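[INFO] parsing input record for MGMT family protein
[DEBUG] input buffer:
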Amino acid sequence: MRVELREQVTTIIAQIPCGRVTTYGCIAKMTDGATARSVGAVLRTLPQGHTLPWQRVVSAGGRLADHEGARRQRELLAAEGVLFDRRGRIPARFFWP
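[DEBUG] output buffer:
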């Protein structure tokens, strides 16, 4: 991925407000050519100790992506006040923008 595109993705992620979420696809649409998959790749390759709010990026439909950090992601989002319905989805009112 081009450095400029990676910077766009990380800049958008940094702007997601506390207590809100957005999708990989939504972030991709805000860039000059990223895909939902490439947004995920950026998140997977963040350096140790980064400060980006990675937990605020979720799959389409308001579900957590199936990855190693999903449990931690759910804990972090719950601590920010994000709720999940009985089916594990995040209600639309928590979505940004």
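[INFO] The helical segments are 3-15, 24-29, 36-44, 70-79.
[INFO] shutting down worker
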